[in-house]
Amino acid sequence: VNYQVRSRATPSQAELHGARDLFQRIEYPMLMHCKAGADRVGMMSVIFLYVHHGWTIKDAMQKHLSLKYGHIKQADTGILDHFFETYLEYNEHTPIEFFDWVDNVYDPVEVHQQFYVNSFLNRLINIILRRE
To answer: Is the peptide bond before 108 cis (omega within 30 degrees of 0)?
Structure first.
């Protein structure tokens, strides 16, 4: 199965629902990969653990969107952290299931506009490490 996601943009509602549906219908075991294995796989791992194993978004983020795997949240790819953190902040004061938030609260454009990038680390990721 080829399921494409982006590492430098907020995911769309359709991409998120597509990921959930994919994890509910594929045969296991499965393997996920991308060029570096740090950002897109990290995001999909968070969704997988939430959907398939009942992990919290916070715990899954701490495990898989991590410098340990080469993910740098202060660069463009940190938009993925910001996306999940926006949900966690909302959920803290207004408890809501993740996909209910995606459907009823989440605004990809607004979340993207609120994200700040560290220009030095962004250059490191884009030029030196040649990430996609």
So the answer is: no
Q: Which two tokens stand for residue 101?
A: 């938030």
Q: What pLDDT score was predicted for residue 118?
A: 47
On the CB side of 11, CA atoms within 13 Å amount to 30
Q: Enter the pTM of the model.
A: 0.82
In sequence order, what are the residues at sequence separation of 6 or more whose Cβ sits closer than 8 angstroms to the Cβ of residue 53?
Answer: none
Helix residue spans in 66-107 (DSSP H): 79-93, 98-104
Residue 39, φ and ψ in degrees, nearest 5: -105, -65
First and final C-alpha spacing in the chain: 20
Largest CA distance in the chain: 41
